[in-house]
Amino acid sequence: MIGTLYVTGPAGTGKSTFSGALKEWLQRMEFDAAIINLDPGADYLPYEPDFDIREYISLEGIMSDYNLGPNGSQIVAADMIINFTDKIKEFTDELQDYYLVVDTPGQIELFTFRTSSTEIVDRISGEKSMIAYIADAPLATYPSGFIAQKMLYASVFSRFFKPMMFVLNKIDLVSDEDVETVKKWERDPDLLNEAFIDEKGNIEKDYFLNLLEAFKESNIMTKVYPVSSRDSFGFEDIYSNMSMFFTGGEDNDTYNE
Ligand SMILES: Nc1nc2c(ncn2[C@@H]2O[C@H](COP(=O)(O)OP(=O)(O)O)[C@@H](O)[C@H]2O)c(=O)[nH]1
Ligand SMILES: [Mg+2]
C-alpha cells in the first residue's frame, strides 16, 4: 500500500460519498485504489467496498446477543472493529501499489473518540496514514460554524496526531464567494474573529481570538480543501497532498501527464 487516508467527520457531512468519489477519481487517473468500509452500521453505501466490516460485524446480531438498542449496539460494534484488524491487514498486504481509502462510522464519536481507534489506525497503516476531516460546506461557511468545525478538527488531530486535511465538502451547495471567504478566514484569525463578532453582534470580549491564533500557530489552521464529492471537484489537490506525504511527490509526474 502506498498510503491510507482515513475519512472522518460528523454524520452526514459526506464521508462515504467522498470516499467513493476519491476512489473513482484515483482510478480515473489510473492509480490503483481500494476502499475499506469500517462503518458496521451503514445501511447503504454510495460505492462498492473492497473490504466491508459488515461482513464480520452485524448490528442486528449485537442487538439480540447483548440485548441492546440501536445506539448501544453501534458503540459495541465500533469497539469490535479492532478484533478484525488482522483480517484487514491480510487484505491490505495484497495491495502493493494502492492508495487505500477508509470510510469510518457515521457518527464521529464512534470512531474518533473511542479508545481503540488510534490502535486500529496504527495496526492497519502505521506511519502511512493520513486523516481527512470532512466538514459540511453549508455548515462551515459562516463564522461560528467554521469555528465549531475547526474545534472538532482539532479534537480529531489530538486523537490521531497524523497529517490531516480539512475538507470543505458539498461546495456545490454554496457560492464561490463563500469558499473564498473561508479560505481567507483560514489564513487570518483576525478576519475570522471580526466576522464572528459581526455575526454575534454586541460582544465585548474576543472569546475565540486567542484560540484561533493558537490554531494558526499550531498548524491546525493551514489550508482548506474545497471539494464537491457529488461533482468530483477538488480531488487533484487532495491527491497532490497525499502523494506529497506518502511518496515525497514522486507520483506527480504520472498525474501531470
Ligand atoms: N450536494 C452534495 N451532497 C453531497 C455531497 N457529498 C455528500 N452529499 C450528500 O450528503 C448526504 C450524506 O452523505 P454521506 O456520504 O452518507 O455522509 P456520511 O454520513 O458522512 O458518510 C447524502 O445525501 C449525500 O448524497 C456533495 O459534495 N454535494
Ligand atoms: Mg457514511
CATH architecture: 3-Layer(aba) Sandwich
Number of beta-strand segments: 7
Bound molecules: guanosine-5'-diphosphate, magnesium ion
CATH H level: which superfamily? P-loop containing nucleotide triphosphate hydrolases
- Tally of domains: 1
Task: Quickly count the helices.
Answer: 13
Strand content: 5-15%
Order of strands in the sheet with most strands: 3-2-4-1-5-6-7
- What would the principal axes of the Cα set say about the shape? globular
Average pLDDT reading = 94
Helical proportion, percent range: 40-55%
How would you characterize the largest beta sheet? 7 strands, parallel
What are the low-pLDDT stretches, counting only 5+ consecutive residues below 50? 252-257
Structural class estimated from helices and strands: alpha/beta
What sequence of helices (H) and strands (E) makes up the elements? EHEEHHHEHHEHHEHHHEHH
Q: Provide the CATH topology.
A: Rossmann fold
Oligomeric state of this protein: single chain
Family: Belongs to the GPN-loop GTPase family.
GO molecular function, one term: GTPase activity
Keywords: GTP-binding, Hydrolase, Nucleotide-binding
